[in-house]
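During the second half of the funding period, the structural biology subgroup turned its attention to how the target accommodates small molecules. The most pressing case was dinuclear copper ion, which had performed well in the primary screen but for which no bound structure existed. We therefore specified the complex as follows and requested a full 3D prediction, including the ligand pose.
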Amino acid sequence: VLLLAACSGASPSTVDPKGSESREIAGVWWLMFGVGVVVYVVVAGLVIRAATRGRRHARRESRISDAAFIWIGGIIVPALILLGLGVVTVTTSNAIRQPDSRALRVEVTGVRWWWQVRYPDEGITTANELHVPVGRPIQIRLGSRDVIHSFWVPQLAGKVDTIPGQPNTLRFTAETAGTYLGECAEFCGLQHAHMGFAVIAESPGAFGRWAAREARPASEPTSELAARGEMVFVRSSCAGCHTVRGTPAAGDVGPDLTHVGSRGTLGARAVTNTPDHLAHWIRAPDFFKPGVLMPTHQISGDDVDAVVAYLEAQR
Ligand code: CUA
């Protein structure tokens, strides 16, 4: 049962919170679990007692009448428990939704099957990776470009749906530096399972350096191969869907590739980002992600190597 529940150490767990919001949610979860255990033990104890005490006691007068027992055990006690849990749930929900004027604003858009990430105040657009400074409140505006997705980083916050035409807001503060995995938590089509992302929480200094680097346009190619790669990229259909800031490539259909070389994975965590995987990806995106909306292109082997050299150098 534990294997089926995917309870391996590598899975992100809601009961191992690393953010302000997830800590509150985990607190409510443990309270409900504790109350559930007490109720279970009491009811199971009464069932066992009723089953074992036998018929000879059946006629003896009980200290408490049947009607009073039903009123207390069946109505008053459950109502008090539910009322208490209801109050805790509502006050916790309110507490984790309080806006904070110091918050770092981020905009995340769900797209089949990846995440567009924008930092409007920093002028950054990236994909499938959110960098956040530890200790600073984050306010994420969630939207969708096509169908309903759900943005979920179990160790940092609760899950919130991204709905076309209906922006939602998610707030949290990362408490510990680290990489926290996120998943799309709403079935959204063929590659729902490969719609992962990562939140990288780092010190404010490291975040500042990352943001400064990401805000810059792409660097000039430094080798002959990379220069040819840029030419192929800009002149082929790549540029129709992808943006590389600082070049004529300004498509908005696929992920912004301005600093793609600095990202850990390709295809929304489908594979690790290596030159080999990127070459495979360009030749046949379907290989790693069947059903992916990126079409297969007729680009010669040499040109693919050139594009890979160009993109992997964009850090
Ligand atoms: Cu997007 Cu599931």
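Two results from this model are relevant to the next phase. The pocket of dinuclear copper ion is lined by residues 110, 113, 149, 184, 186-188, 192, 195 (CB under 6 Å). The chain has seven helices and twelve strands.
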